[in-house]
Structure formats: C-alpha cells, structure tokens
Amino acid sequence: MKNTIAKKTEGYGYKYTELADINKYCQDNGITYYQEVETNEINQKDYIVTTLQYGDTEIKRRGCQIVQAVLSGIKNPVQEYGSSLTYCRRYSLLMALGLATEDDDAQSLSEPKEATEEDAKSWTFPIGKYKGRTMKEILVEDEQYVEWYIREKANDYDKKCYEILTGEELPTEEELKEKAELLATFEKLIIETNTDKDKLYEHYSVENNTQMTLKQMKEAIEIMKKKVE
C-alpha cells in the first residue's frame, strides 16, 4: 500500500497536499472517516479527532491542535483560522492514516509576518479596554498598558510592530529565561548587601526589576557580589 502522497497544489506561498487527494487514497483503499473538534479537559485546547472505518473496524485518533496560525500572504484573521483548520484536518487525517507527504509544510503555519512601518502604525488592539484603537495612540496615552499587552498577550507579529513604533528591541525568549534564572540571585544579594532598591532602580531608569534588561541585571549582580566579597 502506498504510504506517501505528493504535494502539487500551490497556495499562500507554499505547496500542500489537497484533501481531495487524501480522500481518493481512502476511497481506493476502502477507508471512510469523519472528523470532529474535541476540547481536551485538562488543557482546554481544541484538537481535531479523526475516526477511521475499515469495514467493521473503527479507530479513533486524536490529531493536530487547532492553533492561531499566521500564514504567508494572509492578514485576515477569519481566513487565517479557516486555513489553519483546513491544515489541521488534512494533517490529522494523514497522521491517522499513517501517511507521509514528500516534505512537511507545517513551517508555513508558523512563518512570522514581516511587519512594515505601515502595519505598525495601523495595528489595533484585538481585545481589552482599548480594542479597536491603535498601538501608536495608546503608547502616548497609556504606555504601561501597551507594555503589559506586549509582555502577556502579544504574538511575534505584534511584537515586531511594537519594536518598529518604539525603536526598542525586545528581549528574546532565551534572554527572558536567563533573566528569570538570575532573579533569585538578584533578590538575595539585595538583602545581603542592604542595597536601596529605589536608588538602584533610579540608577537604571526603571521602576522595578522586571523593567531591567538582562545586561543591567548582570551588571547589578556583579557589583553586589563585590560588596559581599
């Protein structure tokens, strides 16, 4: 039995396997199926569940998690979700059937949008008290809210727009992780050296340690270590 399906359809800047081709494969091999969206009770994430039927045999298999996708060339959120759902259906079915494609096009779903200056200026909040208003104007009115949103809610595209508008380069995930690991040492040294936090934060022009850069925290730790020695 053939276990590889070729890609031949162009769309959104990449090639992908048509659902019709997989359906033909199923028909040729006496397989029927249906798919449902099922929410996992533990993590509350939605998954595509595929039920395969081979004659009297029925097999139920969970496949891809439905995620908020960012596809090349698409900026309409509804269209993005529809394309993501189609992708998840297609690959969940391939997974359930144990089929492989000639290569994996999953990268297209995680390809970050290339934000432009025009995109940044027109970016609006999709949720919250400033829903529908631009980041550009809220940066003037309520900069702390924007910083909170970027820290807690933003995706890579949102962050790119923020960087364009502010000229500030946001820390990478690795830098944030390293900073989190240093935080315990930082707080311990504050106590051991009886350092005045307010003066320390004033020196670095920040209000608290979360606003300090990784470089600033490393520098402060080294200074306090020398005091202990």
How would you describe the overall organization of this protein?
The chain is of the alpha+beta class and 229 residues long. It folds into 3 domains: 4-110, no CATH class; 117-166, no CATH class; 173-228, no CATH class. The protein is 48% helix and 16% strand. It has helices spanning 19-28, 77-97, 107-110, 117-122, 135-141, 143-152, 156-166, 173-192, 197-203, 214-228, and strands at 4-5, 9-11, 14-16, 31-39, 46-54, 57-65, 100-101. The strands form 3 sheets. Strands 4-5-6 form a 3-stranded antiparallel beta sheet. Strands 1-7 form a two-stranded parallel sheet. It has a two-stranded antiparallel ribbon with strand order 2-3. Helix 8 (173-192) packs parallel to helix 10. Residues 1-16, 70-74 and 102-112 have low confidence and may be disordered.
